[in-house]
Amino acid sequence: MKFASLLCFALLLPQAWSTVSGQTVHGTVTDRTTGEPVGYANIWFNGTGRGTVADGHGIYSIDAGTVTPDHTLSFNCIGYDTCTVRLRDIPQDGTFDAFLAPVPQVIEEVTVVPVKTRLKRLGNNFRSPLMEAVHQDDLTGVEFGTIIKIKKRTWLEEVRINVLSCSYDDLVFRLNIYGRDETGRFVNILRQPIYASVPRTDEPTTVTINLADLHIVTDDDLIVAYQHISSSLTGQIRFPIGLTGARSCVRYNQGDAWEDTEWSFRFPISLIARVER
């Protein structure tokens, strides 16, 4: 599997960027081929822990903080190559429109072989409110994942995420599924984004996402992650958590490394799958 990093395309003004606290970079993220906006693209300054997500129309704004002109700003979304630009090459007014190149879709030949499987739940299915994680206000770009250990060939059927309550009116999240590439690094294996919403509710609910039509088969470990990408600025969502079960991890933007969750709590993501007998 090959992963490319392309330079963004933009009309640049000659004036160079200077490092001034509080400056922002802003603009739109667009499909280079069709000219259509790329909604909910990930944007981050490499190696800084600073990132965000574009809105549904591809419009973004990110605070540069105290990053230096030599830092790079990256843009990506499922189905597109990642593109990067150095901060020093962005116009002084902070306006930068990124154009993402679609990744060619290669249809792989599939050989259908009869195989016996059994339906199994993998991951965590916590429901009790005795322990909970409360996340509130603006969480844009944050990912919480469950590490799914795969021992035999496995066909993914659906993902379930348990929620205790949600006071956001318009929470949208992206489901990300990461598998290992040839270097052992976890990379997104989806060919198109999967978006889902969490309803405003005072009662426990389970968000279910069907994967059967995607025909995802794996024999290696996965990270199945919830990424908060859009909501009102204020509100909170409560998840039931546990201290035993499948390990969970967190990162605050796509440029960060995965870390263990605080206090090593386990996040309530489970995977329903058919596992080879």
Automatic annotation (TrEMBL):
Keywords: Signal. This is Carboxypeptidase-like regulatory domain-containing protein. The lineage of its organism: Bacteria, Pseudomonadati, Bacteroidota, Bacteroidia, Bacteroidales. It comes from the Bacteria. Residues 1-18 form the signal peptide. It comes from Alistipes inops. InterPro entries: CarboxyPept-like_regulatory (IPR008969). Transmembrane segments: none annotated. SUPFAM superfamilies: Carboxypeptidase regulatory domain-like.
